[in-house]
Design goal:
With 117 residues, this protein is mostly beta strands. The strands form 2 sheets. Strands 2, 4, 5, 6, 9, 10 and 11 form a 7-stranded mixed beta sheet that branches. It has a 4-stranded antiparallel beta sheet with strand order 1-3-8-7, with no helix packed on it. The chain is 0% helix and 55% strand. The chain is built from no helices and 11 strands.
């Protein structure tokens, strides 16, 4: 079993920054992908960014150039640095992990990000 704990959400003004963290624990594999998703009220959950165990990254078009995903393998932690936040970034942000050889996905509990003046 794998546990994911997110932190770092909060209220920020437009143009501000936040850094989210997702710490993984439990039976971890060295071959994995971790990702950040978000879900705004009334909308479907969407992929924001992902990073593989090798360091390959992928971003949604809406956050390219503003968000950066990174990892610290020693801490089993993934980060999402969010800059120039806009009201449309308001959502609950979830961390997800999938790892070889398991087929199921693991999700965190979510952290609220609110961008408002």
């Amino acid at each position: 079993q794998v546990q994911l704990v997110e932190s770092g959400g909060g209220l920020v003004q437009p143009g501000g920054s936040l850094r989210l963290s997702c710490a993984a624990s439990g039976r971890l594999s060295g071959i994995y992908t971790m990702a950040w998703y978000r879900q705004a009220p009334g909308k479907q959950r969407e992929l924001v960014a992902s990073i593989s165990h090798s360091g390959s990254t992928n971003y949604a078009d809406s956050v390219k150039g503003r968000f950066a995903i990174s990892r610290d393998n020693a801490k089993n932690t993934v980060y999402l640095q969010m800059n120039n936040l806009q009201p449309e970034d308001t959502a609950v942000y979830y961390c997800k992990r999938n790892q070889w050889p398991q087929v199921n996905d693991y999700w965190g509990q979510g952290t609220q990000v609110t961008v408002s003046s």
